[in-house]
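Notes from the 1:1 (GR / supervisor)

We went over the backlog. Supervisor wanted to see one worked example end to end before approving the batch request, so GR pasted a single chain during the call. The sequence is below; no edits were made to it. Supervisor asked that the structure be written out right there so they could see what the output format looks like.
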Amino acid sequence: MKRRNQLLIFLSCLNILVLLSQPFTALANNMAAAVMGVPGLRSYNQGLNGLGLTGKGQVVAVADAGLDGGSMDTLHPDLKDRVVGVKDFSGDGWADPNGHGTHIAGSIVGTGLKSQGLVKGMAPEAGLYFQATYNDKDKNLHIPSVYDLLLDAYNAPGKPRIHVNSWGANFSDGIYDWAAYSLDKFVWEHPDMLVLKSAGNGYKTAKPFVSSPGAAKNALTVGATEGNRLVDSTTGNPGQVTGFSSRGTFDGRIKPEVVAPGTWILSTRKSNPDLAGDGYIGLYNQYYGYMSGTSMSTALTAGAVTLLRQYLVQKGLSPSAALLKAALIFGASPLPGVSSLDQGFGRVNVESSLLALDKGGARYGDNPGIKTGDKVTYTYVSNGQPFKAVLAYTDYPKTPGTGKDLVNDLDLKVIGPNGQEVYWGNGYIDGDRLNNTEEITIDEPKQGQTYTIEVSGYKVEHGPQPFALVYGALPYEGTISSATGDEVKFTDGKTVKITDNTGIRVVNDDTVVKNAQLKDIPAGAEGYLVFGPEGQPVHLDALYTTLSSKIQSKENNNQLVIWDGTRWALADGARIVVGHNEIKWSELPIESEVTLTLNPVSGEIWGINVQSMPDNSAFYPLPLTADEVKQAIQNSRSSGKVVLSAPAAREEDKPVTLAFSTDMAAAIAENGRPVELRLPGFTLAVPAAEFSRIGQSEQGAQLQIRVSWQSVGDQPLPAVDPLMYLRPVGQIVEVRSAIVWPDGSQLIISQSKNPVRVTVTSPLGATAGINLKRLGIYRLNELTGQWELLGNDYNPDTGKAEVVVNRLGKFAILEASRTFADISGHWARTDIEIMAARGIVRGMTPQLFAPDDTVTRGQFTAMLVRTLGLTGDARGVKFTDLPADYWCAADVAVAVKAGLVSGYGNGLFGPNDPITREQMAAMLVRALNYGTIKPLPESTLKPGQFADQENISNWARTSVATIVQAGLMKGREQDMFAPQGLTTRAEAAAVMVRLLDYRGNHR
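Structure output shown during the call:
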C-alpha cells in the first residue's frame, strides 16, 4: 500500500506516438500563447519600452521533479539566464528524471534562444526559482509541508510572488485535506503570493476530482483545453475541455477556476534525453519537445498571469493574489456549450484582461477588509457593452473534516437601474455559500444607466476579510472577416464603424505593425474592441499569426498537413494566392512552400500565400483501358476480386502510374468487389469503396495510383529505436494516390478511408545470409524520418510480407538487428536478439535486457500478443488492478478477448505478479490453438516423465503435457518440470521463438 504522503507527478497519459524531429524553418510554433492572447501583452506599448510585457522584474517559483541535467553548466540554453536559484528537496540532486520540470520551466520563462525566438515562454524575461523534489532512489517526490515549500519560495532570491505546482497527491481526490489546509494557511498569512495548482489528469478514472491540494480555496487551480494543433482526434479544438482534465471538488466548489491549452504543448526539452523514462509525446528536435496535461496548462497560465502582475506593478500596485486571480478571471472567455463545472470561469484570455484594465476603464483594486454585516458599494454607468464583476478573496484556512470548507463568507451582488434587477455571484440566489471567488456577467446592460455593485460580509469568523474586486465593460472579441474603408466586419455579423479617434494596433505574433491602419488587418485576425463611455469604439487590437512551412499533404478537402506533421483546417472563405493570382484548393500543389495566415485562437487558416512551387518528378503513365477494366470486373464474378496487372516500366526502376478515369472508378465502385493491383514486387488490394472518392464532381479527372521503386543497397536505415540496425532486403516501394485534373492540378490522398492490404515481395535470392526470423515489413514515418515496424508476417516460401494499413507511403522488407550489453555470452542471446528485432521483447533500459529477471504476467501477456501479431485497445479491460492507461492494459484486453488469458476470478489480473511455468504452459496452448482450424491434439504426461509432475495443478496437467510434446517448453535440471517455478525474461524470449517456429511449420 502506498503511504499517505506519497506524491506523484501528473504527466500526460495520452499515449500518442512520438511525432516530430524536423529542424526549424520559419515556423512560428508558439500557438498556445496566441490562444490566451499573450502576444498582445508581450507587444504592449512596444514602441515605448521596446519589449512590452515580458515578465521583466518578476520571479516565478516552480516546484517540480527536477530541472534539466541538474547542473548550471549544462542547463538548457533557453533557461540558463533565467534561473535565480535552485533548492534541492530531493536529497539526490536536482536533475530532471522525465523532462517534466524542464518543459514546465520553458513554458513560463524560456527565452527561445535555440529557436530564434519562435518557441519561448509566456514571460521570457521573468526569473525562475526552482524547487527540485524527485528522489530517484525511492521514485517519489520529497515535498515538505506545502506551507514550508511555499515559505522557502517566498523568501527566495528575487522574492517570487507566483508559485507553480504541477504535481498532485494520489491519496486525496477533491477533498479539503491537510495539504489544502497548509496551502490556505500560507496564503492567508502571505496574501501577496499567488499559488497555482494543476487540476490533474484523472477525470476519466475512478478519481475524477481535482488532485490535492487543488481543492484549496486560495489556490488558482487550472484545467486543460485542447490546443489548436490538429494532431489527432483528441486535439485541435481550443473551445473544448480535454477529456483527461480533472474537475470539481467533493463539496461541489468551482475547481478549476480557469482552463488553458494543455495538449501538444511545445516547450524546452531536457539536454540528457532518456528514451525509456521521458514523458514527451513528440520530439521536435534536440532542444524542444511536446507534452500534454494540466501541468502544461498550469505553466502557461502562470506565465500569462506573470505579465498581468508586471502590468499592475508598473502601475504602482503591490497586487494581492486575490487581485491577480480576479483580473485573470475577469478577462477569461467562457467556452460555449461547456459546463461551468468543467471549465470554471472560462479559458484564460489575458489580452481581454489587459485591454479592460488599460483601455476599457475597468476598475480594480484591493479592499482592506469587511466584517459580518458590513457592506461596500460601487457604482457603474453602463456604455451598453457586456458588463462583468469578479470578487476574489483569500479565505481563512479550515480544519479538515470539520464543517463547511468556506470559513469567511462574502457575497457579490449587482443591482440594476432603479433596483429592478438583482444579480447574485455565480448565480446563487441570496448568496454563494461555497466559493471564495464569485462572478457576475450581464450580457445586455442598459446604456447610460447606473448599476450598483455590492460586496457584503455574510459571515466573517476571522476578520476583517480583505477582498479584491474587478468590474467594468468587457472588450468585444471576435474573428475579423474584413477590414476595409472605415468598417470592421466580424464573422458573427457584427459591423463596427471605426473613427479617427479609434486607436488601432495590429500584432503579428509578437511584432507590432507600425502606424497600423485598417488595411493592415488580414482576414481571420482575432479582433478585440474597447468601447468608451458613450458606446463609441476607442481602441481596436487585431492579433494574427503567420506560419511558414511546406505542405506535406491535403486531406478532407479543407485540411493541410505541414512539414512538422501538424494538421490545420481552412476557414470558410480562405484565400489561396500565388503572387497576385488567386487559385483553387484543387490547384494547390503538394510540397509547395507556403506562408499561412492563421487565426490565433481557433487555429483556422485564412490565407495561404504560395512562396514556391514543387518540382514535379515524371511518372511513366500506364493508363488502363476501359476494355481491361471491364474484363477484370467480369472475371471478378468468379474470382471475387478485380485483378489488374501492370508490367514493369520500359526502363528499370522507372516509376509508374495507374490511371483510372471517372467512369472506370464508378464502374469498379458499383461492382463492389475489391481490386487487386499487381505490379513487380508489389501488390495493393483496395476495397471498391475507395474508388468512389472520385465522383461526378471530378468529371474529367483521373484517380491515379503511383508506384515507384528505389534500390538503397546495404546502407542502414534509421529506426525508431536508435540502437536498432535496419538493413533493406530488396527494394523500397513507394505508393501514392491522387486525384488529378486535366490542367495538372491535383489532390493527394495520403489517408485511405478503408483499410488497404499492401504486399511487398523480396526476391528469394536477396535473403541469402539473412536471418529470416528478423525480417519484417516496415513503413517510413515521413514526420520523423524513421522506419516503423508494421508486422513480422514474412513468408520465406514466397518471399512476401503483407500488412493492412490506412496510410500509403514507402514500404520495405527490412532485417532488424538489436542487442543488449548484458546478454553477451548468455545461452539465450540469439533468441533475445530475434525477439528484440521483431519488437516483441524490449529492454528494461535502452542498453540492458536483464535476462535473468523474473517475467511478470503482464510482460508475458504482452510478449504473447506481439508474437501473434494481435492489436487492439484497452477498452475491454475489466480488472480492478489494471487501469486503462497502464502500459500493458491494451495487450491484456486483446489477450482476454482472444481467449489467451484470464484473471484470477476475483476481478484481479495481477499484471505485476510473477508468472509460473504451469500458467505459462496454459497460455501457450491457447496461443497455439489461436486462429487455427485444427486444434492442437491434447497430450497426457507419461508416468514418471517428470520427477515432480505430481506437483502440477490438475487444471494445468493437460496444458503442460501438450506444450512439452509440441517442444515449446522443456523440463529443468534433474528431470524436474518445476510447475510453480518462475520464468526468466531469457526463458520467455526462447519460448516465443519456439512458438514462432511451431506456427511457421504448421501454417
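Supervisor's comment: Confidence is low (pLDDT under 50) at residues 1-29, 616-621.
Batch request approved.
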